[in-house]
Amino acid sequence: MADQQDAQLMMQVLQWSSMSGGIDALVNLMSPGFDAEGASATDRDVLTLLLLGETLGTFTKQGLLDKGLVNDLWASGLVWAGVGPAALRQREQFGEPRLWENFEALANGSES
Fold first, then answer.
1. For every one of its 112 residues, what pLDDT tens digit does the chain have, with 9 covering 90 and above?
2. How far apart are CA 35 and CA 17, in angstroms?
3. What is the model's pTM?
């Protein structure tokens, strides 16, 4: 169950996301012209959302943030559907199976 500390940390993460372009990145992700299969993990908007998702996934995995609160406030599955293909290609490119794993686990409702 989420508590006041979870809410405060979540607000700080959302502020950081907003300051780093997270809102614009989400708008672009949800636009009809966004091409998830053609996107690259080095695209600014994609990377912004990957960093946010990995941060939220890591915080929930480590018990620093309540997963229910994160899922209530942030559509991790929707965002992963958009940026996940780029993340998986980057994982393959670098041969690093753990790259973006906490975001993927959060989006899939599993623990990594």
1. 899 999 999 999 999 999 999 999 999 999 999 999 999 999 999 999 999 999 999 999 999 999 999 999 999 999 999 999 999 999 999 999 999 999 999 999 975 5
2. 22
3. 0.94
Tell how far CA 62 is from the center of its chain: 16
Residues in CB range of 14: below 8 A, 6 or more apart: 22, 73
Note every long-range contact of 61-64, with CB atoms under 8 Å and residues 24 or more positions apart, other chains counting.
61/102, 61/105, 61/106, 61/111, 61/112, 64/9
**Domains of the chain: which residue ranges?**
42-112
Question: CA angle at residue 85 from 81 to 90, to 5 degrees?
Answer: 140
Q: Which DSSP string corresponds to the chain?
A: ---HHHHHHHHHHHHHHHHTTHHHHHHHHTSTT--TTT--TTSHHHHHHHHHHHHHHHHHHTTSS-HHHHHHH--HHHHHHHHHHHHHHHHHHHT-TTTTHHHHHHHHT---
